[in-house]
Amino acid sequence: MTTTRFAPSPTGYLHVGNLRTALFNFLITRKAGGTFILRIDDTDPERSKEEYVDAIKQDLEWLGITWDKVERQSTRLDRYAEVADQLRGMDRFYECFETPTELDLKRKKQLNMGKPPVYDRSALALTDAQKDALRAERPSHWRFKLDQTRIEWTDGILGDTSIDAASVSDPVLIRGDGQVLYTLASVCDDTDMGVTHVVRGADHVTNTATQIQMIQAIGGTVPSFAHHSLLTGPQGEALSKRLGTLALRDLRDAGVHPMAILSHLARLGSSDPIEVRMDMDELVAGFDLSHFGTAPTKFDVEDLYPLTAKVLQSTDLADVAGPIADLGVPADMADAFWSVTRDNIRTLHDLAGWWDVMQNGADPVVDEEDRDFVVQAMAMLPDAPFDDTTWGTWTTAVKAETGRKGKGLFMPLRKALTGQSHGPDMGRLLPLLQNIKPVV
Length: 440
Ligand code: GLU
Known about the structure:
- This protein is α/β, with parallel strands linked by helices.
- The protein has helices spanning 16-32, 50-63, 77-89, 100-112, 128-137, 182-192, 205-217, 248-253, 258-265, 280-285, 304-313, 317-327, 331-341, 351-360, 371-380, 390-402, 406-418, 426-429, and strands spanning 2-6, 34-40, 69-72, 93-96, 141-144, 150-155, 159-164, 172-174, 197-201, 224-228, 231-232, 297-298.
- The strands form 5 sheets. It has a 3-stranded parallel beta sheet with strand order 1-2-3. Strands 4-5-8 form a 3-stranded antiparallel beta sheet.
- The protein binds glutamic acid.
């Protein structure tokens, strides 16, 4: 049975980078059949906020990413203390007294000497008396003692991977103020909750190496790990600079359709083409983690709009009846309204503009050289109500009267009636126009 988790820290809103991780874990779980856990990594009481926990759930729900269980790290602190004791008893956990400034200085010295900034383990040399003396004057933190061997695993995306534990600092698991850090909590949870697969960003590769040793130390089963590449902006710049505009809720407010973003992220960075999928089952069926590459993946938020437009073109009225009714479109017009507009919108937000054109009329756009023609044509337009034949009959008559044809005939009329040079088929739009502003 596959068990995965998506483990956000509730310190902010979810963004596309987080979603990539959530989606990959979700898709492999739904494909294999299993349990997808939403794990709230809230061991930092200062930065974790309840409003973000709620927001994370809302954003996932909006996308249709459903979880089977919620776990909260803040409710498991006793268990983490127990595991810390277990590690202490095994001599894999040691107390350190360096202040942040001292550690910083050590790192700088190492770097100056051309050495990697790895913690030198000097705390291991302290005698009990020295520790007692230090304990009396300053807080201590605790590190996991890595076994300095080569740590190897077969990564679901990176392939065979190995890291020399001697090149990594022993990870701090408990801070000076007693706060349990993510690494300890995550290792306990992955073990206790029977997590079988962990997919996360490539920024966690070194963590994975240390976590493999920790899981082994506490007697857990090491899950399969896969590290996806990190997203960058369209020019390859770090995405983090732009995260403010890429929060999922901002995309939702901008009108991006959930299936557009899901279809995009389920394929971006893989060897499979990006294709619009209309439901989650199709995404699940077509997903293969092994098709993803290791290079940083460029993400352009603009790509979500053509995809949204495509999704909307295939969307049935039933799925948009709510927003259409909210605009004030009467129920008996909704079908005609949607079939006329859906091929001509970037997002659902554009519907309001079309409804305004239909209900109130557009401000006519008339080029100077077309003015006489448009005035003459509008005088020939029969009185409302219009039907499916009105446009054809009218433009045939106008053509006969004025000698205009093709674009020279149709475009000025479109611009006079809609105020725009692009839009729905005029033959189908005209019957929906309830008001036409005069050309002056
Ligand atoms: N809370 C961690 C993060 O957001 C989870 C990482 C992990 O998947 O283990 O980076």
